[in-house]
Structure to design on (186 residues):
């Protein structure tokens, strides 16, 4: 499968990140967790940076409110997210924090190769990896860079599947909106 783009991975050791929570909106001691929160047609998008690398993108409930970019990298990420919102074929070029297990990064590399407007099943990716669909689903749900690594393009053999370790609620609606955006440009 040819790769249409490959996200840039910023330096660092092979670190495994702690499990993320889409509801975790504040960092330690009440400091802001996100360096930007951008309202898009598909969701409120939280952007977190660490030094010269993007550390996380999170879909937030709209009630979390927007936040202007606090640094140049957050501003660059927001600009690229806006370009994707205008053109679902846009290819992100952001420095990503090196994160995840070797298996997760292998899954994420395959996800990054899925063209806009297309989907693959968890089983399709599992066959390519010699793994199980459930393991692929877990890696998809742990993706720290949705949009850049478009995990919304991975679906169940019969239906939409889950999203960000959920099977209902606003996150699944975000997945539906992203897929519609890429299929119809809306």
């Amino acid at each position: 499968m040819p790769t249409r783009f490959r996200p840039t991975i910023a330096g660092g050791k092979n670190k495994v990140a702690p499990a993320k929570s889409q509801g975790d909106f504040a960092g330690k001691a009440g400091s802001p967790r996100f360096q930007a929160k951008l309202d898009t047609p598909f969701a409120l998008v939280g952007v977190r940076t660490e030094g010269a690398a993007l550390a996380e993108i999170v879909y937030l409930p709209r009630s979390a409110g927007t936040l202007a970019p606090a640094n140049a990298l957050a501003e660059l990420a927001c600009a690229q997210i806006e370009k994707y919102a205008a053109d679902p074929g846009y290819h992100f070029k952001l420095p990503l924090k090196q994160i995840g297990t070797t298996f997760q990064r292998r899954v994420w590399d395959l996800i990054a190769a899925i063209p806009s407007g297309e989907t693959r099943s968890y089983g399709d990716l599992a066959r390519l990896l010699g793994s199980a669909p459930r393991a692929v689903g877990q890696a998809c749900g742990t993706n720290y860079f949705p949009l850049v690594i478009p995990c919304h393009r991975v679906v169940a053999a019969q239906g939409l599947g889950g999203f960000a370790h959920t099977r209902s609620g606003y996150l699944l609606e975000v997945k539906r909106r992203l897929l519609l955006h890429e299929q119809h440009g809306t």
The chain has two domains: 8-14+25-95, 101-184. Confidence is low (pLDDT under 50) at residues 1-31. The two ends are 27 Å apart (CA to CA).
